[in-house]
Amino acid sequence: MKSKKLICSVLSLMLAIICVLSGCNANKKEETSSSTENKLSYWCILNSAVSQTMSNFGETPLAKEWSKRLGVEITYIHPPLGQETEKFNLLVASNNMPDIIGWKWGDNYTGGPSKAIQEKRIIALNDYKEHAPNFFNYLAAHGEADKLSKTDEGDYFGFTFIKDDKISLTSDGPLIRKDWLDDLGLEVPETIDEWENVLRAFKEEKGATAPVSTDTYGLAMFSNGFNTTSPLNGYYQEGGTVKTGFYEEGFKNYVTRLNKWYAEGLIDQDFTTLDMITINSNILSGVSGATYNSIGGGIGRYMAAATEPGYSLVGAPYPIGKDGDERKFTTISAIVPGGYAAAITTSCKNIPLAMKFLDYSYGEEGHMLLNFGIEGESYEMKDGYPTYTELVTNNSEGLAFAEVLGKYTLSSFSGPIIQDYRYMEQYALLPEQKQTLEIWSDRTALKYVYPPISPKAEDMSEYSRLKTDIDSYAKEMFSKFVVGVEPLENYDEFVATVKAKGMDRLLAIMQKALDAYNAR
Questions:
Q1: Chain-centre distance of CA 57, in angstroms?
Q2: Are residues 341 and 324 in the same domain?
Q3: Which of 91, 115, 348, 379 is the right S-S partner for 372, CB 3.0 to 4.6 Å?
Q4: CA–CA separation, 515 and 151 (whole Å)
Q5: How far is CA 188 from CA 77, 174, 315, in A?
Q6: CA distances, 361 to each of 67, 411, 465 (Å)
Q7: What gap in Å lies between CA 129 and CA 239, rounded to an integer?
Q8: Residues 180 and 278 in one domain
C-alpha cells in the first residue's frame, strides 16, 4: 500500500512538472505579459512650474492625455530637487535603469551620448527607425537638428529637445528700468559707454545703491561690448575655429571696465555671493535699476510683484562697443540645447513601444498636444492660430501662466518635442515682454556658439582635467580682477598661467571634436 501511495505521489509530481512545461500555466503567463506589454518607466526632472502644484508629472492632464491617446501606461520617476545629478549618476551606474531617461547627454554625461552608447547605458536608435517615422522624417529635412541628434559615429542617441530658431533660442538677457530711463530722458543703452552713463545716472539721480544687481554669471552680458567672452561662456567658434576670450585683448579691456564700475559702486558690491532672492528684492525695491533675467521669470514676475506706480522693466540689447559692431556673444542656445534627449536605456524590454511613445510628439497631432495642450481646454484654434484659453492666461484658481502651462504642455521646459515659437509669443503677454522678445531676436550669435558636443573618448580624461582646472582658475581670477584684489597689472601673468595650464591643448581637443561634428 505504501508503495502505491509513493508511486501516486511521484506521478502527481511528474504531472505537475509536465503541466508547467507544456503550458498549463499559460493563462497566468499570458496575464503577466499583457499586464506589462503597454507599460513604460520614464525618469526625468520634474519642472519647477509643475512641482508647485503636483508631485509627479504623471498627475498632469498632459501626461494622462498623452498616455490615453497611445494606450501606453507611463510611470514617471523624478529625482529630488537639488539632487538631480547625484541621482542620475547613481541611476546609470545601476543594473536597474528605467525604460527612458530624459537628460542633457551633451553637457552632463562624461563622454557625451557616444560614451553612453559605448557603455551600454542607452541604445542607438538607428535599427528602430521604422518605429519613429515622425522624428526621423523631421531630422531628414532639418540638417542642423539632425547633426545635434547623433554622435560622430552616426548613432542617434535619443529623441531630442529641438528649439524653433525664430524667437525661442534666447529667453534671458539684460533687463533695465524703463520708467527710470523715461524719467531721466535717456534711451535704452546700446553701447558700453551708454550703459556706463545710465548706471551712473541711476546711482546719482535715482539713489540706486547697486545700479546693476547680478551675479558673476550675469556680468557676462557685458562681455560682447569688448568683443570677447567671459569665463562663463569662454569658448566659441569663428569660421570653424575654436577660440577663447582669455587670450584676447578684449578680455583685458572687459575686466578693466568692470573693475572701474565696481570701484564707482555701479556694480553690486556683493556680486560674487548674490542669490536670486536678494537680486529680486533689489530690482523690486529700487536698490537696483538693471539686472540679468528672463522674460517670464524676470519681467513677468517683477511686473506682477511691483508696487511702485508706473514700474516698468524692458529688455536691453546685449551691449556693443560701438555702433555697427556685431552681437557675437549673447546667451543664445544651440537648436538642441545641452544635447537634451529622452533616451531609451538598455534596460528597456519593449523598445518599439518606447519609440512609438516618444515619436508621437514629432507628428502634427502630438506637436499640438505637447506645445499647447488639449484643444477646447487649454487652447483653441482662432484663424488657424493655436490660442491659449483663459484657463492658462487668466486662471480662475489664481495659478500663474507658467504653472498652468506646466500641467498641459512641455513647451515651457525641456522634453522630447519641437518647441513651437507660438508658445513664446503668448507666454510674453505684457507689452514690455513682447518688446523684449523683439530686442533679443538678433540671431547673429548663433554662428559663434560652440555646439553641445563632447570630445573623442580618447581625449575625454585629459579634456575634463584641463577644462576643470582652467575654468576654475579663470573664474576665480575674473572676480579678483573686478573687485581689485588682483591688480590689473598682473593680467599678462594671468594669460601666461592659463597658457601654462594647457589652454592650447584644450583648444586643440575642442577643435578635434568640432571638426568631427562638422563632418557629420
A1: 18
A2: no
A3: 379
A4: 13
A5: 45, 11, 9
A6: 12, 11, 39
A7: 34
A8: yes
Residue 351 included in any domain: yes
**Mean per-residue pLDDT over the chain, rounded:** 89
Q: What are phi and psi of 231, to 5 degrees?
A: -60, -15
Residue range 492-507: mean pLDDT, rounded = 96
Question: Using 50, 70 and 90 to split pLDDT, how confident is the model at 334?
Answer: confident
CB 413 within 8 A of CB 102: no
Q: Which domain holds residue 341?
A: 39-167+337-420
What's the average model confidence in pLDDT over 114-139? 96
Q: What's the count of helices (H) and strands (E) in the chain, helices before strands? A: 22, 14
Pull the grid cell for residue 400.
500663474
CB 503 within 8 A of CB 496: no
| Residues 280 and 247 grouped into a single domain | yes
The per-residue DSSP string of 219-281 comes to GGGGGGGGT---TTS-EEEETTEEEEGGGSHHHHHHHHHHHHHHHHT-B-TTTTT--HHHHHH
For 467, phi then psi, to 5°, come to -65, -40
* Alpha-carbon span 187 to 13, nearest angstrom: 93
Decide if pLDDT at 28 tops 60: no
Res 225: pLDDT: 96
Q: Is residue 32 part of a domain?
A: no
Residues 407 and 477 occupy one common structural domain:
no
Instruction: Tell me, yes or no, whether 34 lies in a domain.
Output: no
Q: Are residues 482 and 403 in the same domain?
A: no
For the chain, the residue count is 520
Instruction: State the CATH number of the domain containing residue 489.
Output: 3.40.190.10
Of 9-18, 181-190, 293-302, 459-468, the least confident: 9-18
Report whether pLDDT(279) > 70. Answer: yes
Same domain, 228 and 326: yes
In this structure, are 178 and 327 located in the same domain?
A: yes
Into how many domains does the chain fold?
2
From 397, 420, 443, give the residue that closes a domain: 420
> Smallest Cα–Cα separation from 358: which of 23, 186, 123, 176?
123
Q: How far apart are CA 325 and CA 225, in angstroms?
A: 9
